[in-house]
Specification:
Layout (H helix, E strand, L loop, with lengths): L11 E2 L1 H10 L4 H15 L4 E5 L2 E6 L3 E8 L3 E6 L19 E6 L6 H12 L7
Antiparallel strand pairs: 1-2, 2-3, 3-4, 4-5, 5-6
Helix pairs in contact: 2-3
Amino acid sequence: MLAGGNPQIPKGEGNEPVQAYLDAMPGWKQQIGLLIDRLVLETVPGVAKAVKWNTPLYGLPGQGWFLAFHCFEKYVKVTFFQGMSLAPIPPGKSKQPHVRYLDIRETDEVDEPQLVHWIAQASALPGERQ
């Protein structure tokens, strides 16, 4: 684990490194990661996965990444790379003009329909090329 409780996973493309990340997520955070992964897979046909910078990324081939998440000590931060274009706009502000975040804490009740709505919208927008 890295400082803050984020798994340290080698960079890689495809499901295998993302699954390694999910398997290494600590405690209650693993359920959040598994939920996000499942919702993305159910919502976005043909989704591509990768781990870069110890962070799972989700995107569409040739279109870039639309979503990522990362473990912190007290929450899981979901990143929407074009979050300012989503409706409603996710609540977490960023220093990057187009990015918005959703922080999920252990005691939070995840609004799955809203998360699915954001995932669907985000996947239809141009992605981040990293």
